## 1
Amino acid sequence: MLYIAPSLLAADFSDLRTEITRVEDAGANYLHLDVMDGHFVPNISFGPGLISSIRPHTNLLFDVHLMISEPLRYVGDFIKAGADIVTFHYESVEDPMATFKAIKQKEIACGIAISPKTPADVLLPFVGVADSLMVMTVEPGFGGQKLIPETLDKVRMLRRYANRRGINLMLEVDGGIGENNASYCTEAGANVLVAGSALFKTKRPRSVMAKMREAELEHPFLG
Ligand code: DX5
Ligand code: ZN
């Protein structure tokens, strides 16, 4: 199954409840929440306060993408705020496996993300271990960028590696994704597509999402 995760970063923040309802009604699976600290990435977005205030207004799973230094220090706050999955960046910590294990002790689904310049090999120890893996298809920090095609080679490599071992990997791609390139992502092996601008900056999110879902029929990710 293909999971679609609208990224709230591209929403109209003056009317979040309406914006979230719109993508939920359009058939989203997750709400992707980009947390940026102005340190790990050169931009600041929002924190647990905003997440807990929207939590009562939607049934979507909260996919919290931590683009912050010291994720372990703050992860508890995001769990309390209502995160269902927390993903931290491989590059943001000294010992990613230790960080992963410490987060798992808090009994939450945990993913690991890599930025475009980080090779996919670093994620191999997490295949079959982490709840999901995320390949960033743009440099983290800003919405509305163009997908970097070479990053999809990493998706392909990780999907093959998992398939050869019979592992049903949740493999997420994030950045610059929309109706015109969703099928490249699923062809490479992604089964979770994050889309900010494509779903929030359109008047017809339902039809964009339907087009994105056609990508699954063209390229079933386990095939
Ligand atoms: C980038 C974020 C993405 C971004 C996606 O740092 O992690 O989730 O908001 O937005 P679009 O789809 O506009 O590239
Ligand atoms: Zn993100």
## 2
Amino acid sequence: MRVTVIGTGYVGLPTGVGLAELGNDVICLDVDEKKINSLKEGKLTIFEEGLDSLFEKHSKSGKIKFSTSFSESIPEADLVILAVGTPPHPITKEADMRYIKQASEELAKYLSGYTVVAIKSTVPVNTGDMVENLIRKTNPSAEFDVISLPEFLREGFAVQDFFNPDRIVVGANSERAKALIADLYLPFKDRCPILYVKRQSSETIKYASNAFLAMKIQYINEMADFCETSGADVYEVARGMGMDSRIGAKFLVPGPGYGGFCFPKDTNAMAYMGKFNGVDLSLIEATIKGNEKRKINMAKRILDMVEDVKNPTVAVLGSAFKGGTDDCRESPALQIIEIMLAHDVNIKLYDPEAMGNTKAILGDMVTYCNSSYEAIGGADVLAVLTDWEEFKSLELEKIKQLMKRPQIADYRNVFDFNKAKELGFDIRSLGRI
Ligand code: UGA
């Protein structure tokens, strides 16, 4: 099948590369010339585990091509996937549909023969209708169907998730479009359910899923706070809860708050849609508020640990919003750092992959280090803010020698809590004392 993917970000690029691996002829289209030139030169523009080898394989084989031209990329396509950004509006937080509209109007001009236009970007309910109307208005004779094909990939695991989805959701009102999608996902036929639903249901499934997962995280974070006051251990509590198949063991890991480009944006957009439709979505609103408070509270806890220190230094491990990605958008780590900076704390920072993106945001406000141990040297507190695997192999004995004071705020549970205590660390974990 000939597929054109519009948008080469964290969704578009892994999707394009994954579809090429399934045997399709893919064009990744983006208006950002710099990105496309880089991709044409064989340089990936994002970090995603496992993406580089597949990207190289299919760039070389010609199964995937890159372009900035709608006129060259759209006419031949059987399927056009919209994977452009829908960032939050700065004030209302509703999803900004500017890029979806621009791409829809532009692609409409070049549709030729029957084409399915699939919306993969996370979009408000009824966007399918809006895109359909825009295309029809721009090109009344075009033969097309608009479907919703929401994305459930996690950053850092995008390649793994692409090939091992829990489910594929397709919101389609036309049998012809369903048949084309069934053909595209034939390799997954016996691997996962393919759920065909109304377009509005599919659009809602995406928001409802992300909001639910965000709520689950906020719930376990609240339980962590409770455990700290009751003497229980939240990791034991989460294990016990997770064994109930109705609850499930995943997304019960306490942390410094959820971040990234999706959960904050999508919970806010869902809350906005609730207000707009006159529906009380109080659970989602409480989740948003709780998550905001959590980051402030996390920073305050670290500040308390250096309250008596003049000109304190905090070693921060991790600035990405989670391990496995270089993405710092809405990263709790950066928000916590910013609060500490406002309180005149010196920050020595190390992240295995996100240093470039961090520098673009924090500039020269922090000291950038080349390794964890370099960041830890001379620090009054070590704060672990991102769950990178490599932090788990750091040696507590060595850390103790390097630090000015043996204090750890382990917000990602990377250290052996009891061992750290035995070694004389003042270690503050989440959900256990
Ligand atoms: C999320 C969803 O998990 C994907 O299914 C969805 O496709 C994606 O958003 C999207 O809408 O595009 P992602 O943002 O990559 O994926 O990140 P997650 O792995 O879900 O983590 C989100 C945040 O929650 C991170 O800050 C992470 O550290 C935090 N988290 C996650 C916890 O604090 N505890 C957990 O148990 C799980």
